[in-house]
Amino acid sequence: MLPGRGRTGAARPARLLGTRTAWTTVGDGEFFCPGCGGDRNYQRLTGRRRLVLLGVPVLPRGDTGPVVECAACQRHFGTDVLDHLTTTRFSAMLRDAVHTVALAVLAAGGTCSRTSLETAAATVRAAGFDDCTEDQLEALVEALAQDTGRVYDRPCGAGLAIELHEALDPLAPHLAPAGRESILLQAARIALADGPYTPAERDVLTTVGTALTICADDVTRLLVAARTPS
Q1: Measured between alpha carbons, how far is 80 from 65 in angstroms, rounded to an integer?
Q2: pLDDT per residue as tens, the chain (230 positions)
Q3: What are residue 58's phi and psi, to 5 degrees?
Q4: Nearest to 193 by CA among 143, 130, 121
């Protein structure tokens, strides 16, 4: 056997035919890259394939794509990957949803007791509003009542139900069942901070559960579980 002609060093024939794709950028933005596992910039690409003879493009072979290319890892993904929320967007939606739910429960309670306000403020701060205070929440509930003409301690009206659905409907598909249940449990604990559920608080909590796509039996189970000290 001649030197350099072993199995690992055997000469390979040149590739005569192949295909090559020429990519064109048609958009960009930020997405959650499943390859990197975090928020990254991306380019949206469409491509044109050509038959290549000895490295020279000779015949068109049609279009391909569109695809999403991660600017960091360079991997290509289907465009459905853009349906996944970025971490930044998800955090903002979750924070806003918890804030809206807390205000709705406080408004339903009617009295805005100090214990309810303290529980609500702690919940909202944990969700991302680091500077939220009891006084801020109380002022917001009062302003909400004056702006909408809402009467405290009444069932969840159409306007409040719409606000809850607007905050929760886009978020629910991106939450695991445990995440959806966690939001409802947080709301329930705000309602229970100053005593048993009132009919108005139960109505709001049921609306929250519906918006989070939690079935009625599970809503009942969770509202009972929230009454049990952990």
Answers
A1: 12
A2: 444 444 444 445 456 766 777 788 999 999 999 999 999 999 999 988 877 766 666 666 667 779 999 999 999 999 999 999 999 999 999 999 999 999 999 988 766 789 999 999 999 999 999 999 999 999 988 887 766 544 444 555 567 788 899 999 999 999 999 999 999 999 999 999 999 999 999 999 999 999 999 999 999 999 999 987 65
A3: -125, -35
A4: 121
